[in-house]
Amino acid sequence: MVEIEIIGVVGSGQMGSGIAQISAVHGVDVWVHDTDTAALSRASKSISDSLHRLLSKGRLSQSGATDALRRLHYTSNLEELRSADVIIEAIVESEEVKKSLFRKLDKITKASAILASNTSSISITRLASATSRPHQVIGMHFMNPPPTMKLVEIIRGADTSDETFRTIKTLAERFGKTIICSQDFSGFIVNRILMPMINEAFFALYTAVATKENIDLGMKLGTNHPMGPLELADLIGLDVCLSIMKVLYAGLGDSKYAPCPLLVQYVDAGRHGRKCGIGVYNYSKASQKPNP
Ligand code: NAI
Hints:
Blueprint: E1 6-10, H1 14-25, E2 29-33, H2 37-56, H3 62-71, E3 72-75, E4 86-89, H4 95-108, E5 114-117, H5 124-128, E6 137-142, E7 151-156, H6 162-174, E8 178-182, H7 190-206, H8 212-223, H9 229-236, H10 238-252, H11 261-268
Parallel strand pairs: 1-2, 1-4, 2-3, 4-5, 5-6, 7-8
Antiparallel strand pairs: 6-7
Bound molecules: 1,4-dihydronicotinamide adenine dinucleotide.
1,4-dihydronicotinamide adenine dinucleotide (NAI) is lined by residues 10-16, 33-36, 39, 90-93, 97, 101, 118-120, 141-142, 144, 236-237, 240, 275.
Binding site for CoA: 50, 57, 120
Domain 3-hydroxyacyl-CoA dehydrogenase C-terminal: 187-283
Site (Important for catalytic activity): 141
């Protein structure tokens, strides 16, 4: 099994920054890369704020926080990730963009390095085909937000080796996560089920079945979900939800996965959810919260 001392995280958005944080807290040196230097600065601040919150709540020691911060390195130069034992990719949910990155990572990283993707829906087998090491490519799908959500979904591509699987399973367990294993079909387990529900909530809104507040409240109190589907979509990112629906639609070939026109329109309008201040709900308002 590969010994994990250095992790490279590619993409420093909401998922990449959370994955970098838990890696550092669990004793791994982390190189975080993003092509956008502003995203790197935001990630550095959000990780530091999050570690200080854990410290103030007594869930992390002072030395734990200091050590974690010391282990984190931020770079806009992908080549700095060359000595990583594992790369965890968390960039935009686009097969072409991810494949192009995997081609570069295959050239840059050492031969033993594992290339893991945090993709929500895209075929691991196809990402692996962009590399010369398909046996070392695997899906390692964290939930949002990675530091608090207990699950990691592991997806083996057609050629993923047992050794790669064992190494990533052990890493997820070191992070304190429970794992589930999925076959490599569009959306895997969690998003195969979650995204059609979110898409249906958009259809309910689109066809004026109810207000957004009542749709969310109905699913919270009626089915005991901690968040309503529209609030959750805003947290995930409407752009990410739309990308996943497109992958489900293309990969599973059933019209029931066609993205709701209202979801498409919101994304076209730049309403990407919480991360940009507006999605289904408007977070720039004084309340800052959906008000069902
Ligand atoms: P995000 O939009 O918050 O962050 C993506 C980051 O990747 C951005 O900072 C962007 O500058 C960077 N990036 C884009 N192309 C790049 C490239 N070629 N090289 C380096 N950096 C690049 O996205 P988020 O939400 O963190 O999602 C990232 C991945 O995680 C996606 O594959 C998504 O499907 C998956 N995911 C998302 C979840 C969510 O709830 N948002 C949950 C689980 C997985």
